[in-house]
Structure to design on (701 residues):
C-alpha cells in the first residue's frame, strides 16, 4: 500500500488550470462555504422570503398538521432489531423528537400495546450536553451485543462521534472507548479491542474526505498509539480493514478493501501476516458466510476456472478451503438471475440466507440452504404483487421479519421462526384509497429503450390533460425506486386530487447491474432522456399536460430534476429540487462529491468534462429561458451533497431575474429534517408549492 497526503479541496487557481470553473467564471462560489457568515445571511433572507410566500397559503397549516399527525402516529409500526436480550427499536414522536432507544420482549411486541423499556433518551442527552445530537445507530460486539459503540451526529451530518455504551446498565461507559467526529466505522474484535477505520487526521483522508487507514485500538491506549493494520491510497474513494465474521460472532479472517472508484473495489485477505489481493472482479464483493461457505456477489460476468458466472450471481466457496487457499478455492453457482430479475438485500439467520429479489419490479423473497452437497432454494410464502423487504433477522435463531407494501396498502410486518410467515403488525391507513388505482405503463426513450413507470390515479380522474401530476424517480447508483405506501403523499396530494408517478429509469437498480451500468459516466444522459420520455408519455396519453406536470427528486434525484427542467423547461410546470447535486463541473470539490466520479466522470479530464458539461444544470441555467419557477431546498448540515449545490442554483436564477423558491434547514443532514416537526414543515412547503403551481388557476400569472 502507498503512503501519501492530499488536500481534498483544490485551490481555485489549480481548479481553473484544469478547466474547472473558479471565482472568475463563477460569482457564486462563496456559497460553497457551508457556515460562512455571508452565506448564512443569504440563507436567512431566502428562508424568510420562501416561508413568507408559502406559509401564507391558507392550506399550509392544515397540510402541516396532517403530515405531523402521520409522522407522530402512535399506531405506526415500531420496527425492531432482534437481539439476544430482546427486540430493540428507535422511536421518535411529539414527546421525543430526537428519539428513544428502547426494547421489549417478543411476547409483548406481538400485542397492540407493547411495554417498552427505555435504554437511551437522545432528547435528554442532547439537552444535558447542549448539542444537536441525532442518533445514527450502534455497532455492538457479537454474540451478546452488550458492548456497543453509539454513533451520534451533530445536526444530522454524515460524520459522527462514537461512544462506548453498555446495553445492560443503559449508560455510557465511564472512561470507555470514544472516537471524535469523523467519517468511517469500527468493529469490535473483543471487548477490549476495536478495529477502527476513521479520519485520524487531515493527512489521512482521501480526496473524497473518507478514511484510507485502519488501526487496532486497545483499551487504555491512546488512539494515536494504536497499531496501523492497513493503508490504502489517498486517491481511493475510501479504504480500510474489516473482519470476516460469521453469524455466531467467530472471526475467520482479517480482510481489507480499496474502493478505487465508487463502483470498483479491490479486496484483500490477511494471509501469513501479509495482505493478499483476492482474484475477483472489481465489481464483485464478499456477500457473507452461510452454512460453512463464503458467498460472493458479482455485478459483472465473472469467468474463472473454465466457467462463467453471469452478472448479479451469487457464488459460493467452501470456507475452510478458502481460508487455506483464498484464490484457489472451487467456486459454485448458488443463484443467477432470470430475465428482468435482480437480487436486492440479503440477511443471514442462524441457519439460512434470505434474499429479496425483483422480478419485473415485483418483489419476492427466497431462502437459500446448503444440504447434501448442494444449494437449495425455497420461495418464502409472502403476498404477491407487492414490494417485499427484510426488516430484521436473528443471528442465532431462525427468527426473521419481512415487510410487505405497495402504493395504496399500508406496510404489513410478517414474522417467522422457521415456519410460514404470519402477519403480526400493520400500519394504519393514512389516506382514503377508495377509487384510486395503480397502473404500469412504459415510455419509449430517445434511443428506443422501453422505460417502465407506475401511475397512481385518483378517483374519477379524467384523461383530458387536466390532472395535477407529480413525477418522481432516482436513476442512479444501482438504487431501485419501488412501490411503497405513499403515506403523507397520499394524504397531502392524492386525496386532494393529484396523481403520482414513479419512473424506473436506467441508472437505477430495478433490473440489475446492467440496467445501472448502461447509464453512467459518458452515458449518463440516458437517465435524463428516460425521465423526459416518461414526462412526454404522460402528456401523450392525456394523463396530464405541461402546465399540470411537476417533478420531484432528491440527491441524485435532485440532479435528475435539475437536468429535466433545464433541458425541457416547456414540459414541466413545477420542479422540486431536493438536497441536490447541481453544479457538476465543481461537484468533485463540494461535499463528498469526489467519491462519485465513478458514476459521473471527472470534470478535471477534458473528455469527461465534455460529458458532464452537456447536462450540468447549474451551467444550463441561462438568460432568456422561461423555467418552471423551481423550488430548491437543502440542509446546512448536509456534508454529503452539500447545500452549495442548491444555493448556487437559486442564486443564479435570482441573478437572471428568474422566479424561484429556496429553503434551507439548518439541521437535518442529507435526509432533511431531524425531527417530525421539521419533516412535516418540509412536506407542507413542498405540497403547497405543487398545489399553487399545478392545481390552482395560474392563467393570470
Amino acid at each position: 500500500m502507498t503512503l501519501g497526503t492530499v488536500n481534498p479541496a483544490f485551490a481555485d487557481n489549480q481548479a481553473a488550470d484544469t478547466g474547472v470553473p473558479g471565482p472568475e467564471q463563477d460569482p457564486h462560489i462563496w456559497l460553497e462555504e457551508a457556515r460562512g457568515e455571508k452565506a448564512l445571511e443569504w440563507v436567512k433572507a431566502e428562508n424568510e422570503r420562501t416561508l413568507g410566500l408559502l406559509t401564507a397559503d391558507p392550506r399550509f397549516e392544515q397540510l402541516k398538521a396532517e403530515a405531523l399527525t402521520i409522522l407522530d402516529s402512535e399506531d405506526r409500526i415500531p420496527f425492531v432489531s432482534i437481539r439476544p436480550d430482546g427486540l430493540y427499536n428507535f422511536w421518535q414522536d411529539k414527546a421525543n423528537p430526537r428519539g428513544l432507544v428502547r426494547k421489549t420482549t417478543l411476547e409483548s411486541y406481538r400485542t397492540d400495546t407493547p411495554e417498552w423499556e427505555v435504554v437511551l433518551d437522545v432528547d435528554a442527552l442532547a439537552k444535558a450536553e447542549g448539542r444537536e445530537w441525532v442518533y445514527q445507530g450502534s455497532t455492538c460486539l457479537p454474540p451478546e451485543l452488550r458492548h456497543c459503540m453509539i454513533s451520534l451526529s451533530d445536526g444530522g451530518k454524515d460524520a459522527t462521534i462514537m461512544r462506548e455504551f453498555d446495553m445492560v446498565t443503559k449508560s455510557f461507559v465511564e472512561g470507555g472507548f470514544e472516537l471524535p467526529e469523523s467519517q468511517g466505522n469500527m468493529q469490535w474484535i473483543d471487548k477490549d479491542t476495536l478495529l477502527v477505520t476513521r479520519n485520524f487526521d487531515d493527512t489521512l483522508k482521501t480526496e473524497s474526505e473518507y478514511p484510507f487507514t485502519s488501526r487496532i485500538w486497545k483499551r487504555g491506549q491512546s488512539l494515536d498509539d494504536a497499531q496501523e493494520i492497513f493503508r490504502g491510497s489517498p486517491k481511493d474513494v475510501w479504504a480500510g480493514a474489516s473482519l470476516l465474521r460469521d453469524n455466531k460472532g467467530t472471526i475467520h479472517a482479517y480482510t481489507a478493501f480499496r474502493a478505487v472508484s465508487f463502483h470498483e473495489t479491490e479486496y484483500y485477505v490477511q494471509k501469513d501476516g501479509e495482505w493478499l489481493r483476492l482474484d475477483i472482479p472489481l465489481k464483485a464483493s464478499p456477500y457473507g458466510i452461510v452454512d460453512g461457505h463464503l458467498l460472493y456477489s458479482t455485478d459483472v460476468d465473472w469467468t474463472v476456472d473454465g466457467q462463467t458466472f453471469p452478472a448479479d450471481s451469487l457464488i459460493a466457496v467452501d470456507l475452510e478451503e478458502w481460508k487455506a487457499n483464498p484464490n484457489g478455492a472451487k467456486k459454485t453457482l448458488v443463484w443467477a438471475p432470470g430475465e428482468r430479475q435482480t437480487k436486492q438485500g440479503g440477511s443471514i439467520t442462524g441457519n439460512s440466507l434470505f434474499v429479496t429479489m425483483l422480478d419485473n419490479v415485483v418483489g419476492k423473497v427466497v431462502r437459500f440452504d446448503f444440504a447434501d452437497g448442494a444449494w437449495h432454494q425455497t420461495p418464502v410464502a409472502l403476498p404477491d404483487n407487492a414490494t417485499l423487504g427484510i426488516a430484521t433477522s436473528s443471528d442465532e435463531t431462525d427468527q426473521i421479519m419481512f415487510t410487505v407494501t405497495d402504493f395504496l396498502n399500508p406496510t404489513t410486518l410478517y414474522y417467522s421462526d422457521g415456519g410460514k410467515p404470519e402477519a403480526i403488525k400493520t400500519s394504519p391507513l393514512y389516506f382514503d384509497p377508495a377509487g384510486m388505482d395503480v397502473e404500469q405503463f412504459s415510455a419509449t426513450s430517445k434511443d428506443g429503450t422501453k422505460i417502465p413507470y407506475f401511475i397512481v390515479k385518483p378517483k374519477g380522474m379524467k384523461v383530458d390533460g387536466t390532472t395535477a401530476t407529480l413525477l418522481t424517480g432516482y436513476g442512479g447508483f444501482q438504487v431501485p425506486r419501488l412501490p411503497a405506501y405513499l403515506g403523507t403523499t397520499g394524504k397531502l396530494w392524492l386525496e386532494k386530487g393529484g396523481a403520482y408517478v414513479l419512473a424506473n429509469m436506467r441508472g437505477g437498480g430495478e433490473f440489475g447491474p446492467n440496467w445501472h451500468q448502461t447509464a453512467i459516466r459518458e452515458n449518463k444522459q440516458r437517465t435524463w432522456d428516460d425521465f423526459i420520455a416518461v414526462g412526454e408519455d404522460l402528456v401523450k396519453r392525456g394523463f396530464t399536460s405541461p402546465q399540470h406536470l411537476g417533478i420531484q427528486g432528491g440527491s441524485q434525484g435532485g440532479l435528475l430534476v435539475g437536468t429535466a427542467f433545464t433541458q425541457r423547461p416547456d414540459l414541466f410546470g413545477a420542479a422540486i429540487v431536493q438536497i441536490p447535486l447541481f453544479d457538476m463541473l465543481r461537484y468533485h470539490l463540494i461535499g463528498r462529491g469526489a467519491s462519485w466520479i465513478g458514476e459521473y466522470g471527472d470534470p478535471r479530464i477534458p473528455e469527461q468534462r465534455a460529458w458532464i458539461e452537456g447536462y450540468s444544470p447549474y451551467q444550463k441555467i441561462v438568460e432568456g429561458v422561461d423555467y418552471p419557477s423551481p423550488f430548491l431546498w437543502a440542509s446546512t448540515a448536509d456534508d454529503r451533497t452539500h447545500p452549495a449545490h442548491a444555493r448556487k442554483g437559486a442564486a443564479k436564477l435570482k441573478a437572471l431575474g428568474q422566479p424561484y423558491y429556496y429553503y434551507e434547514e439548518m439541521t437535518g443532514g442529507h435526509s432533511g429534517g431531524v425531527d417530525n416537526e421539521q419533516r412535516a414543515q418540509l412536506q407542507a412547503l413542498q405540497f403547497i408549492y405543487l398545489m399553487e403551481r399545478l392545481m390552482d388557476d395560474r392563467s393570470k400569472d
